[in-house]
Amino acid sequence: MQTVHNIAGLRALVDQWRSRRERVAFVPTMGNLHAGHMHLVKQAAGAGDRVVVSIFVNPMQFGPSEDYAAYPRTLKADSLKLAENGVHLLFVPDMAELYPNGVEATTRVEVPGLSDILCGAERPGHFTGVATVVAKLFSAVRPHVALFGEKDYQQLLVVQRLAEDLCMPVEVMGVPTVRESDGLALSSRNGYLSLEQRAVAPLLHNALQHACQRLVGGDHDFAAVEADCVAALGEGGYTPDYVSIRRSEDLGLPQATDTALRILAAAWLGKARLIDNLPITLK
Ligand code: PAF
Q1: Pocket perturbation via mutation, ligand 1, pick of 27, 30, 95, 137 by most ligand atoms within 8 A of CB
Q2: One domain for residues 263 and 156
Q3: pTM to 2 decimals?
Q4: 223 & 107 share domain
Q5: Which of 5, 112, 185, 271 is deepest in the core (most CB within 10 A)?
Q6: Cα separation of the two ends of the chain
Q7: Residue 43 domain boundaries
């Protein structure tokens, strides 16, 4: 595995591969890699001939009171894991490489609508930060395909929309969430949980599963299902931000004729804000 820190070095390698008609698969990350990331890397190896991973903790997607400074930076361990998993190129840009004019003054990518609801409503500016850095990374790496975890389902849709709207020649692929054996979705933020919090954390997935069963079983009172899910999370020690049943295609409010839905939730457990979601197919 080669590690490069600048865009010129990255382009030299990717250009070589592209000139040989090799397909480049890309997994952008913020590091602190866990088995969920490694699953994305394995899927990337199946989707392309060459796998590029980036590690960059993007300040633009963190709010002023969020965990940017505390976000775990574990480059050495991450780098070993990626090399063991057959990654060809690790791109680790510094701030000046991705934000040559600074974060405040940078050209921004806004994805209206999709960015303003659910997690976007709770975290103003978050998806503009994500969309901006992903557009920069796509333009630097020039991948044929890029892979994103479905745990961040809203992020996946934001990225698909930006690639479509900016006419980017990249296929944005969603990869199903990897879970612990008790159902908890893998996330870097699980590391913030105490032992007691970790023991109750699977409730987020369980509550969503229970809601899905009700919906699939024919209970289509969405507001009641959402409210019961919020109540169950509250009783279990979570402080929910939201539980919402949406159209899976665009996260719009579902109409009676919609059959492909998604239930999404965000909730705090101590200082960890955890998110999860599940697909629902109605008859
Ligand atoms: O999902 C993440 O880790 C980040 O939001 C991403 C896509 C790497 C952009 O910084």
Answers
A1: 30
A2: no
A3: 0.98
A4: no
A5: 185
A6: 47
A7: 2-175
